[in-house]
Specification:
This protein has about 200 residues and is an alpha/beta fold. It contains three helices and 14 strands. The model has no long low-confidence stretch (mean pLDDT about 90).
């Protein structure tokens, strides 16, 4: 089941958001995005310390208020609740851009999801991010300018097809070999991770 979570980072292109069936959650200021999308009545849970929502916390949806001084980010709290609800795929909007510390925290949240057998994607206005471990994933070109692949582990053995620079590659976490690849005219690529963990960044046109 898919859990769509809205964070508080800026979203300029609401038309690009295609919600899937499943659970919808808002992490603190992410509630504002849900209001602008007209889906606030579909929120299963609003969670956070509400230090940035900038308006009264609504009373017509389930709310969990967390203390400001806590180990979990608001996004991490939402992800944990998503797992508790039986979700295994997480689509995160409003989690990129803005404060770099928040972006880095959300990338680590993707690692948390991956390590627990789930799939997580950060969707942004300018780029999307996903982490991959062992297995094969197929992507279609949906207006991507560059595809960059980096190893988060000491090394990652990867087989790439359908990109300009394809083949069997060993990426390391101390050299940016996989920066700025591109889709071929076929418009579809396949990434197989044999070992290690990689981050895949899709920069949009």
């Amino acid at each position: 089941m898919i859990c769509s979570i809205f964070g508080g980072a800026n979203i300029n292109d609401y038309d690009g958001i295609k919600l899937s069936d499943g659970v919808i959650m808002a992490a603190d200021r992410g509630y504002i995005h849900c209001k602008r999308l007209g889906i606030s009545d579909k929120i299963s849970l609003l969670i956070g310390d509400f230090d940035s929502i900038g308006e009264a916390v609504p009373e017509n949806i389930p709310v969990i208020k967390a203390p400001c001084e806590k180990d979990d980010t608001d996004m991490m709290l939402a992800v944990k609740k998503g797992f508790e609800a039986g979700c295994d795929e997480f689509h995160i909007y409003g989690g990129l851009g803005g404060r770099f510390g928040h972006t880095a925290a959300n990338i680590q949240t993707l690692m948390y999801i991956l390590n627990r057998g789930g799939r997580g994607v950060l969707f942004g206005d300018d780029y999307d991010i996903e982490l991959l471990s062992c297995g094969t994933t197929i992507y279609e070109d949906c207006g991507t300018r560059y595809v960059s692949i980096f190893s988060l582990t000491e090394k990652a053995e990867v087989i790439i097809s359908g990109l300009k620079y394809s083949g069997e590659v060993t990426f390391t976490n101390d050299f940016p070999l996989g920066a700025s690849n591109e889709f071929t005219e076929d418009g579809k690529c396949e990434i197989t991770v044999k070992s290690g963990i990689i981050v895949v960044v899709f920069e949009k046109k």
